[in-house]
């Protein structure tokens, strides 16, 4: 019965904060199975109903087989969380309960008395307990209404507005993808998803600290530069008395103070740091971070020493961000510059890393960000159908120089601008912009995902019939909040969007929001309707979304689906394929390149490889266009559960072949062969390093046996962050036998290939490989030598060790060439196991019918 006791025997200055534990959850109204209705279930906080029921053994894992549908009753049920704590009167005059996250429609009661009602998963709440707090044992209860029924009711109250998927998620402030998405499971869960604490304090406490760091550069006569920094530390306080207060802030060895007289609740302490080092994105420089320490004191009374009441700590980095959207001869660019230096964005979209976000801890964020780094990604875009990401996520990105872009949480739908929704959206925006403002990695705050596009091109105007749809958020509320709370962070009204119009935000309605020539765009007609070589028909300025589906890794697929036999259309596989006609699109997107396999193992490899090739094709093309195109943000880095999707890392955290394709295409130095006007070919060399790159570019036309048919050599010199295009003479670029020839371009060991025909239309033979294995610390080195042309060689190590990782995949070898794969594994493996035909994979295996490949 004893949970948390708050008692102080001597006066204390700082607030006493105690996390509340020992919760239980019970089912109330809803279609609850009898076995669950009879239980009072131990609950974890942070947590959710699903994970509590799973831990209690009352439901099967929702991620497995067809359990999603079996658990649909959970979202139709009301749930009550309860805990008890012991409290005794003490020197504190204020006692409050603080919820960092309630999901979603909740009533909070203390000792049977209602103390608050919440309707928003994305904001924090604080409730005064004093009226109903009693000495001794207290009971706290949080009752959640069914989110499905709440969303339906709110949709009726606000009026229908267009949205994707099957629930009106746009009517309440809950994580949109909790209701399911074209890659996401429908959990419609409830729960206390972030910590809850009891706080007791007296006199005053710090409500919020928002340090805004800016940097000025002075160029000296000798050409060197000195950078000075300014930190405006905005402090909000809550008061329990009219005492005079003193706020003190320090950064970089500089300290300043401000006095708050009776009744004042906010102050700004401005600190000038004479010399600072600038924070840079990864690949552009270092990431120095400066501690900001804030203390709150009373002013002292009767000559007594001032008493410290509270303190807070943040970190800042000194950097500038700007967007170049100045129209040019071909349209309107969208170029992000950090510290005045244009950055080609090598990005990936980020969704919640678990359908139950409370399960994502700091280590898991670190793992995923490290995988992004492995893939040479420099920006993660936090998509607007998920959450305002956790402090851990942004802190790790700050440390590593990983740029971040956070959408406001309005996605693929029209949103009411009337009460009560408007007030909730404003409150969550203020809460989270203030929370995130100090992070130097955060460079874009974006108004919505695809809503401008939907309004203009998805027939929303007719369906809305004059109703509000969100324009007031994107063009008025959000830019006003960003300008007020985080003016050092860039703002865009939506993705995609075309700059221009009244104030540069494109809000006059005359500009197409998804136009290749202007601003940011999303390219989805390729996956949905056309084949991936058509990516090369686009010449975008910045691509914020594009993607191609593929299955999860083999071990993840087999661990989450127990169908027997397992086929692309077996029941569990279809549950784990959420895209409309997803398998049809997978098939249609494969057939131009490879025959459709009948064997599930071959099908899995074919679809994984095709996904990787599609995205590699797109990224290399976009990068070849720079500086005309200055951003590529692939959909998507991660998954929230084990599913066939566009992700490069599957729902169990395992890298798919796609991650390696992204790594190659996003390499600092890239050599690629691209078609150009008039049916010609060109070798494009991209240097995204800080140092120049020069050498002899050699382009050879080869037979599939490796015989040189023609060669072109040219000296190239690339300054830092530049691109050079070398047109190829017809003697090299014109094939005499498309089925048996290829081009290889090489500069300083960096290679690019061009094949004149699709694999299925070539004479690509069965793989002829020899291998050797060496045991090394932490794993193995597998050396593979090709006797014939071998395309896209890969070692699918998860098939033999689910925890194993390999350093590279998708390597093309000419006859006589070798590749060395570094495999990290603690399992005893041998060469035969690692080179089995289902583990050591290549494109060659997919070209010839299976019956001719055996042996």
UniProtKB/TrEMBL annotation:
GO MF annotation terms: hydrolase activity
Keyword Hydrolase carried by entry: yes
InterPro entries, per the entry: Beta-gal/glucu_dom_sf, Beta-mannosidase-like_N2, Beta-mannosidase_GH2, Galactose-bd-like_sf, GH, Ig-like_fold, Ig-like_GH2
One Pfam family of this chain: Glyco_hydro_2
Alphabetically ordered keywords of this record: Glycosidase, Hydrolase
Beta-mannosidase-like galactose-binding domain span: 36-194
Catalysis performed (reactions): Hydrolysis of terminal, non-reducing beta-D-mannose residues in beta-D-mannosides
Enzyme category, top tier: hydrolase
Enzyme Commission designation: 3.2.1.25
Glycoside hydrolase family 2 immunoglobulin-like beta-sandwich domain ranges (all copies): 220-319
Similarity section: Belongs to the glycosyl hydrolase 2 family.
Name of the protein in its database record: beta-mannosidase
Organism: Cryobacterium glucosi
């Amino acid at each position: 019965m004893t949970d948390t006791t708050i008692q102080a025997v001597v006066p204390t200055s700082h607030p006493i904060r105690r996390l509340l534990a020992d919760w239980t959850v019970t089912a109330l109204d809803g279609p609850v199975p009898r076995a669950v209705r009879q239980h009072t279930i131990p609950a974890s906080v942070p947590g959710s109903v699903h994970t509590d029921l799973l831990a209690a053994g009352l439901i099967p894992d929702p991620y497995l087989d067809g359990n999603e549908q079996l658990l649909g009753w959970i979202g139709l049920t009301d749930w009550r969380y309860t805990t008890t704590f012991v409290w005794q009167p003490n020197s504190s005059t204020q006692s409050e309960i603080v919820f960092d996250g309630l999901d979603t429609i909740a009533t909070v009661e203390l000792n049977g008395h209602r103390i608050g009602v919440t309707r928003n998963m994305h904001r924090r709440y604080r409730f005064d307990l004093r009226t109903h707090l009693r000495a001794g044992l207290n009971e706290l209860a949080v009752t959640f209404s069914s989110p499905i029924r709440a969303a339906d009711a709110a949709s009726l109250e606000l009026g229908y507005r267009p949205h994707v998927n099957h629930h009106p998620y746009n009517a309440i402030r809950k994580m949109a993808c909790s209701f399911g998405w074209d890659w996401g499971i429908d959990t419609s869960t409830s729960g206390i998803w972030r910590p809850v604490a009891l706080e007791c304090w007296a006199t005053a406490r710090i409500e919020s600290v928002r340090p805004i760091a800016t940097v000025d550069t002075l160029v000296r006569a000798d050409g060197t530069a000195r950078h000075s920094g300014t930190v405006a530390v905005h402090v909000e306080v809550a008061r329990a008395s009219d005492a005079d207060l003193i706020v003190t802030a320090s950064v970089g060895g500089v300290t300043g103070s401000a006095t708050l007289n009776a009744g004042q609740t906010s102050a700004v302490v401005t600190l000038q740091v004479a010399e600072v080092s600038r924070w840079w994105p990864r690949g552009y420089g270092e990431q120095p971070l400066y501690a900001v320490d804030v203390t709150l004191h009373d002013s002292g009374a009767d000559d007594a020493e001032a008493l410290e009441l509270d303190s807070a700590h943040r970190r800042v980095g000194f950097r500038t961000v700007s967007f170049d959207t100045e129209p040019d001869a071909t349209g309107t660019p969208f170029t992000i510059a950090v510290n005045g230096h244009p950055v080609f964005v090598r990005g990936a979209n980020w969704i919640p890393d678990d359908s139950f976000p409370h399960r994502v801890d700091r280590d898991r964020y670190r793992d995923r960000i490290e995988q992004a780094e492995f893939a040479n990604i420099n920006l993660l875009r936090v998509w607007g159908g998920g959450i305002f990401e956790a402090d851990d996520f942004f802190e790790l990105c700050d440390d590593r120089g990983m740029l971040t872009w956070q959408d406001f949480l309005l996605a693929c739908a029209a949103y009411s601008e009337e009460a009560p929704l408007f007030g909730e959206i404003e409150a969550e925006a203020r809460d989270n912009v203030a929370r995130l403002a100090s992070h130097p990695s955060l460079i874009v705050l974006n108004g919505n995902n695809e809503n401008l596009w939907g309004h203009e091109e998805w027939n929303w105007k007719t369906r809305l019939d004059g109703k509000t749809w969100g324009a007031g958020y994107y063009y008025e509320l959000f830019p006003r909040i960003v300008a007020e709370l985080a003016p050092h962070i860039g703002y865009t009204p939506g993705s995609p969007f075309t700059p221009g119009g009244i104030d540069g935000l494109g809000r006059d309605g005359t500009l197409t929001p998804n136009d290749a020539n202007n601003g940011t765009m999303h390219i989805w007609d390729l996956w949905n309707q056309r084949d991936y070589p058509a990516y090369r028909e686009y010449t975008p300025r910045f691509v914020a979304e594009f993607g191609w589906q593929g299955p999860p890794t083999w071990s993840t697929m087999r661990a989450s689906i127990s169908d027997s036999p397992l086929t692309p259309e077996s029941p569990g596989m279809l549950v784990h394929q959420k895209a409309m006609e997803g398998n049809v699109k997978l098939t249609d997107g494969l057939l131009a390149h490879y025959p459709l396999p009948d064997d599930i193992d071959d099908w899995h490899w074919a679809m994984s490889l095709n996904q990787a090739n599609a995205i590699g094709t797109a990224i290399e093309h976009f990068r070849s266009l720079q500086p005309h195109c200055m951003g590529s943000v692939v959909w998507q880095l991660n998954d929230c559960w084990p599913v066939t999707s566009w992700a490069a890392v599957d729902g169990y955290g395992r890298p798919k072949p796609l991650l390696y394709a992204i790594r190659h295409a996003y390499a600092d130095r890239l050599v690629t062969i691209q078609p150009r006007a008039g049916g010609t070919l060109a070798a494009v060399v991209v240097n995204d390093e800080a140092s120049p790159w020069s050498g002899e570019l050699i382009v050879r036309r080869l037979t599939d046996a490796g015989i040189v048919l023609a060669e072109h050599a040219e000296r190239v010199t690339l300054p830092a962050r530049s691109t050079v295009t070398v047109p190829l003479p017809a003697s090299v670029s014109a094939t005499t036998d498309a089925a048996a020839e290829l081009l290889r371009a090489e500069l300083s060991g960096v290679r690019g290939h061009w094949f004149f025909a699709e694999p299925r239309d070539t004479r690509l033979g069965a793989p002829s490989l020899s291998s050797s294995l060496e045991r090394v610390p932490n794993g193995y080195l597998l050396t593979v030598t090709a006797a014939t042309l071998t395309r896209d060689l890969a070692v699918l190590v998860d098939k033999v060790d689910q925890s194993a990782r390999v350093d590279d995949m998708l390597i093309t070898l000419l006859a006589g060439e070798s590749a060395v794969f570094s495999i990290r594994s603690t399992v005893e493996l041998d060469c035969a196991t690692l080179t089995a035909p289902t583990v050591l994979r290549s494109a060659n295996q997919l070209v010839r019918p299976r019956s001719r490949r055996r042996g």
